[in-house]
Amino acid sequence: MMMMGETWSQLGSLIATAMFLWAMFDKYFPHHLRSLILSHTKNLTSFVYPYIQIKFPEFTGEYFKRSEAYAAIETYLSSKSSNEAKNLKAVVVKDSNQPVQLSMDENEEVTDEFEGMKKIPPRTQSFSFYPEMEEKRYYKLTFHKSHRETLCGKYINHVLQEGKAITVRNRQRKLCINNPSQNWGGYRSTKWSHVTFEHPASFDTLAMDSKKKEEIINDPIKFSEGKEYYAKIGKAWKRGYLLYGPPGTGKSSMIAAMANYLNYDIYDLELTMVKDNTELRRLLIEMTSRCIIVIEDIDCSLDLTGEEESSSKVILSGLLNFIDGLWSTCGGERIIVFTTNYVDKLDPTLVRRGRMDMHIEMSYCGFDAFKVFAKNYLDVDSHELFETIDDLLKEIDMTLADVAENLTCLKKLIEAIKTAKEEATKKAEEEARLKAEKEEKEKQEATQEDVKVDESLAKDVKENGVDVVKDDKTLGKEVKES
Ligand SMILES: Nc1ncnc2c1ncn2[C@@H]1O[C@H](COP(=O)(O)OP(=O)(O)OP(=O)(O)O)[C@@H](O)[C@H]1O
Ligand SMILES: [Mg+2]
């Protein structure tokens, strides 16, 4: 404790002396002498520490969008740091040529070499990684001032380009979901959590009408190649699809096939977790480009009836603003997909043409769709039973999920379709019976009501001696008299 007290008192007197000297310097040295001394001090400092430092913060802008430069440096360093840094972070990556990817841990520093500048002591340039108290993370590039020109231009470009190239090489697509809002706060918290997207669906495995499928495939392909076209016509580079149809007809499979084909990330936006427009905007701004934003069951997500009305309307307006308002231009190269089982329930403003560029109906299994399944599941291109199946499918609405489930062999499928048909017939008969019963009951109730009215009228006549007809006449007389 004594030692501590002494240190503090020494420090105090040191500060007091420094302040006294500064005050004397400020008071007695003429202005020109002062600037001369200051410039010499600067030169001296630069001689003693001839390094320049550049910071690359993780987040930029009002909404703290994660900086692309930061991400590129992070990736670039992951390829450099494993030889040098002592503290590393490991991420296991499936199906990659590098199953474990290492990157610099916090407070680490690595030295890099560029264009033969490695001989210059003590180091050419180094990146350090510092989390501060407020958790603002950044990479700091330190280099000798004699390399300023090369390093500020060429080297930084090299790092960013290399970082992006590594990202493309190691690219694993992400399936992101929005976090519950209580997890927000601080710089480091992300609005999205992600897992690696590994859905096996492709346009080849997607069963549907072949002509329709071709149209659908061509559209996103044209879109993804259309950067110049969108710039030329002055439209934001994005496209909206509305997928509608009964459950189990392939809406989610279609989204997965699109993402796999285009090599896009998927952002599965759960609107019911979004509390207001600000939150929505922050989520949307944090998405990477080249992604598909999916809002499943949009009719359930935006409950426009009852208590939820006001907040849902706000979210709806924010969503529309993002689809084709000013916010739509941020990010670029995005596909927005809404799915619903009930297209009629949707707010017309949301699905009007131009807002959702393509409305795609996913319907029950037809013969074309069945043929895709037969090929994929059984490796059969044609078969004598195909005709029977074609006829049966025309008579019954069967979802693709049900067909897929029963496609262990053609005979079993035929049995399943027949059973489904019988069940559907029974169900229809039962519904017709219930409807007839209901109508009959309503008819009977109506008759009983009429009888009751007649009885009460007769009672009135009996008790009061009032006759309706007579009463009417009396009334007519009164009117005339008045
Ligand atoms: N068109 C299709 N092509 C290939 N497989 C399909 C298709 N439709 C359905 N399936 C099969 O049925 C399963 C369910 O399909 P999917 O989840 O895509 O349906 P959905 O239309 O999104 O249903 P929901 O409306 O319930 O979300 C899939 O895992 C897939 O195996
Ligand atoms: Mg689905």
Write the layout of secondary structure elements.
Layout: H1 2-28, H2 31-48, E1 51-57, E2 59-60, E3 65-66, H3 68-84, E4 88-92, E5 100-104, E6 109-112, E7 125-131, E8 137-144, H4 148-169, E9 174-178, E10 192-196, H5 210-224, H6 227-233, E11 238-244, H7 251-262, E12 265-268, H8 277-285, E13 291-295, H9 298-301, H10 309-324, E14 334-340, H11 348-351, E15 358-361, H12 367-378, H13 386-395, H14 400-405, H15 410-464, H16 468-481
Residues 205-208, 247-253, 341, 362, 400-401, 404 line the site of adenosine-5'-triphosphate (ATP).
At a glance:
This protein has helices spanning 2-28, 31-48, 68-84, 148-169, 210-224, 227-233, 251-262, 277-285, 298-301, 309-324, 348-351, 367-378, 386-395, 400-405, 410-464, 468-481; strands at residues 51-57, 59-60, 65-66, 88-92, 100-104, 109-112, 125-131, 137-144, 174-178, 192-196, 238-244, 265-268, 291-295, 334-340, 358-361. The chain is of the alpha/beta class and 482 residues long.
- Mean pLDDT, all residues: 77
Sheet with the most strands: spatial strand order? 10-9-12-13-14-11-15
End-to-end C-alpha gap? 113 Å
Instruction: Characterize the biggest β-sheet.
Output: 7 strands, mixed
Helix content: 40-55%
Estimate the global geometry from the Cα principal axes: elongated
Q: What count of helical segments does DSSP give?
A: 16
Radius of gyration over C-alpha positions, nearest whole angstrom: 37 Å
Number of strands: 15
Tell me the β content: 15-25%
What ligand molecules are bound, each kind once? adenosine-5'-triphosphate, magnesium ion
Structural class: alpha/beta
Give start-end ranges of low-pLDDT stretches. 118-124, 181-185, 468-482
